[in-house]
Amino acid sequence: MSTVEKMLGVLGLFTPETPIRESDELITHLGGSASAAYRHIKTLQSAGFLARVGSGSYMLGPRVLELDRTIRMSDPVYIAGSPVIRALSASTGLSAVLSMLYSDSVVCVRRVLAPGGPESLFSRGQKRPLVAGASAKAILAYLPAHQLRRIFARHGAAIAAAGLGSDWDAFKLSLRQIRKAGFAMTVAEYNVDIASIAAPIFNARHDVLGSLMLAISLERDDLTAFAKLAPLVVAAAAETSAGIAGMEGGAALAARAVG
């Protein structure tokens, strides 16, 4: 592992469960001599990616906030989709989520949580497997065949567990059915108390970039009535895609490395 990879890996050590790390933990991750590790930590601190707190402890620094602001101001999915999911949530009284394809995962870009909506719903920055849940399946169904083959080769067991087929032909059939419907609907698949409907979001070249999802709590909402809202989700995703096409640029290119 290169020095750059190790330094970037330091940022991945910080999570909501462990927002503060002792310098000894960072040194262990970086490896090598303590003096070299301290230099790398100092470099990250000087660049604003780490902030020193307490005595010899660190947390993520303000530069991360700056980068998040830049993403919010430039990400086509966030810009085009935010007003759409706000309107969808307001009209249905339900929670809505925007997600984006990221390698072999799906990442939440924006969430609108309706009053009484499920608190465990996907929130900004959370990453989940590409093969489970409506947000993921709505993206997966529109990936090119060569990317799907890599995903199936690496995640066959998870694909089978998600009900997408235990062999390549069954997998292709499941994805074909999602494409035919234009959306994916799952019930208690990723979270046991949530049902969701998601439709894909595309760029101007019809490359899939992400998905738009509507979700309910199984504890308080009517599943039968919810299923009838699928056309609204598909229409909202299409509106978002049209918005992205209107601002087409480098940021709306499809992911090249998937799986």
Class of secondary structure makeup: alpha+beta
Question: Helical content, roughly?
Answer: 40-55%
Task: Name the CATH superfamily assignment of the largest domain.
Answer: GAF domain
First CA to last CA: what distance? 21 Å
Shape, per Cα inertia axes? globular
Computed over alpha carbons, the radius of gyration is 20 Å
| Beta-strand segment tally | 9
Portion of residues in beta strands equals: 15-25%
CATH architecture of the largest domain: 2-Layer Sandwich
Largest β-sheet summary: 6 strands, antiparallel
Adjacency order of strands in the biggest sheet: 6-5-4-9-8-7
CATH topology heading of the largest domain: Beta-Lactamase
Low-confidence stretches: none
